[in-house]
Amino acid sequence: MSSDPIVMEYFPALLSKNHSERFFEKMKTHFAEFGYGLWALETKQTKEWVGFTGFLNVTFYASFTPAVEIGWKLNSSFWNRGYATEAASFCLHCGFEQCKLSKMVSFTSIKNARS
């Protein structure tokens, strides 16, 4: 998915398999350290992998930092079906109610109207 030019259109670069594996390891460490991170998304019926969603700490300076980001990345074949909206809604509820986060943000390129 992270090597798909359509999915990665508004990201800085495509990710190689090696970069994707390192990202996965980084996410496991983030989850262990902070108690939250990214979750796999799958369809209820077929358990087909849709993508991922969850929380990441924002690691750069911006007017809204420090903050926790609600993020997602979906395989393009699952776009425009409500999966990202459903996942973001779940993250909002989980973030405030279960993780007790006081602030969450989400951001993307201004050109990325789909998100």
UniProtKB/TrEMBL annotation:
Keyword Transferase attached: yes
Keywords from the UniProt entry: Transferase
InterPro entries per record: Acyl_CoA_acyltransferase (IPR016181), GNAT_dom (IPR000182), N-acetyltransferase (IPR051531)
UniProt keyword Secreted present: no
GO molecular function: acyltransferase activity, transferring groups other than amino-acyl groups
Domain of life: Bacteria
Pfam families attached to this UniProt entry: Acetyltransf_3
Domain spans labelled N-acetyltransferase: 2-115
PANTHER family linked to this entry: GNAT FAMILY, PUTATIVE (AFU_ORTHOLOGUE AFUA_3G00765)-RELATED-RELATED, N-ACETYLTRANSFERASE DOMAIN-CONTAINING PROTEIN
Name by which UniProt lists this protein: Acetyltransferase (GNAT) domain protein
